[in-house]
Amino acid sequence: MSQTVETVGSAVRGKAFAPEYQGALGSLSVNSSLTEVLEHGIRELRAAEAAGELREVARCGLAVAEAYRRLGRVEEADRAWKASYRTARDAGDVGAMAWALWSGGTLARQRGALALAYRLLRLAAEAGERGGDVVVRGYSLAGLAETGRIQGDYQAVGELHEQLLAEARRRGEARHTVWALEGIAQMHRNTGSYDTALALFEEAAETAERAEDRRGWAWALRGIADVVSVRDGDVERALRLLSEAEVACRDMKLSSALAYNHKMRGNVLYRAGRYEEARDVYARALEGFRAMDEPRGTALSRLGLAKSRARLGRDAAETAAELAELRGTLDRIGLRHARDMVEKAAAELGVGPLPTGGAGAGR
Q1: Please, how many CA atoms are within 13 Å of residue 204, restricted to the half-sphere of its CB?
Q2: Considering its fold, how many domains does the chain have in total?
Q3: Which ranges in the chain belong to alpha helices (H)?
Q4: DSSP 8-state assignment for residue 32
Q5: pTM here?
Q6: What is the CA angle 187-21-17, rounded to 5?
Q7: Among 4, 103, 280, 357, which is 20 to 30 Å from 324 by CA?
Q8: Which Gene3D superfamilies match (predicted)?
Q9: Which domain holds residue 289?
Q10: The CATH number of the domain where 271 resides is what?
């Protein structure tokens, strides 16, 4: 990843749009609540099935799959993207096949199946190229970049993030520009370049606000809150930003984003030494992640909870055993950066070196 990112002269134009809402659902806003998307999508899907319109069935099925995924209803999302793909294949619609594969790959990453995510997203990018759909190709490459980023493989995907940022700006795609800015910002934050990270998160928030992309704006506020907490120790500003973002998450029924918001609130409180509050918020985040079977968020919330409990007097041996288990879980998922966080937590809490053997048994 390069050390600087050009943030001047963005060519973003107009309002954000949701290209995954297609066909009869094309009028839906990027800010539509997910329950609204799901209800509308199922209604139009049934109508298209009754009319025998395979292309429309595939396109409506994509929106249904994405609504289920973002609501944390992963089994239903899995069935929906596969049904969309099969219908698109039967209709000979390569572009719709690509979108379904993108949805499936994104769901696989959400569920912690990173090898499957890579495979499906590569297939989606290839299908998008064959079908001449530059948007789904871009989204699929972005999915590959994000999968590498959450694994901590910054060197491999940093250049791809910046390439996708340049392409999004060139095409004036606000939503994709925001995504890329946030991804690059997160890598800078995780490597200690806090000033650069903050500038990028702030640009992402401003771009999202201008484009009326509330989802992207909420994620950007979370990033800003993280940086001002870790860099400046500004607890109250961080909590205010997270509260603003939480409103958007609740309005749009963004289950995953809300759980990550709660986890970040726990981080901010923990850094401030407010361990009882942090424990309670981490527990709430953990409940949210478990409800949607989201292993990465589950593991990270458990880590925060374990650290908070240790600060509140939990037995050191119990803390060490849980951290060792978490290390195994994160190894199994393939999250290198998060695994390093466990080792640092053990050192910080004075319970290292962690025991070996039997780790990673899961929760």
Answers
A1: 31
A2: 1
A3: 34-51, 54-70, 74-91, 94-110, 114-131, 134-151, 154-171, 174-190, 194-210, 214-232, 235-252, 255-271, 275-291, 295-311, 316-333, 336-349
A4: S
A5: 0.87
A6: 55
A7: 280
A8: Tetratricopeptide repeat domain (1.25.40.10)
A9: 254-363
A10: 1.25.40.10
Q: List, for residues 233-248, the tens digit of each pLDDT value.
A: 999 999 999 999 999 9
Residue 121 covered by a domain: no
What are the structure tokens assigned to 101, written together? 């594969």
- For residues 320 and 137, the answer to whether their CB atoms sit within 8 Å is no
Share of the chain above pLDDT 90, in %: 74
For tokens 């374990």, name the residue: 306
pLDDT at residue 253 greater than cutoff 80: yes
- Give residue for tokens 């499957």: 116
Q: How many CA atoms lie within 13 A of 94 on its CB side?
A: 12
pLDDT tier at 7 (50, 70, 90 boundaries)?
very low
> Within a 10 A sphere around the Cβ of 129, how many other Cβ atoms?
16
Q: Would you say 117 and 147 are in contact if contact means Cβ atoms under 8 Å apart?
A: yes
Q: For 295-340, write each residue's pLDDT tens digit.
A: 999 999 999 999 999 999 999 999 999 999 999 998 888 887 778 8
Nearest to 206 by CA among 30, 29, 10, 33: 10
